Amino acid sequence: MKIEGGCHCRTVRFEAEVPKRVEILDCNCSICSATGFRHLIVPHQDFILLSGAEMLTSYRFGTGAAEHLFCSICGIKSFYQPRSHPEAWSVNLNALDDSQGLELEISAFDGRNWERAKQALDGAGGPA
Hints:
It is built from two helices and ten strands, in the order βββαβββββββα. By secondary structure, it is mainly β. The chain has a single domain, classed as Beta Complex (Metal Binding Protein, Guanine Nucleotide Exchange Factor, Chain A), CATH 2.170.150.
């Protein structure tokens, strides 16, 4: 099904194709817990950035592998490139226009112990 979303000021807008039933990863790492980011992993080929690419600001920390992308106007991170999935974007469930049609399966991800949590996922997905 098609989902749409973006940042608070609507400068950054995207759409993606996802299955109706999706896994949402609820991460407790320092940045996700501070911002309320809830992860929906979307393969690059199923994601289209509609507008706002020129307004995205990049932030990296820790290993520097993940690229956190924020709207330079309103500061919202609606999606980013996680280190756990170089072939996919992590879309913030909270940045979707409407998640009503999705069937959500919420899974905890222990981002404070990232390496161990990633191993536990067994390649099933995870934020960074």
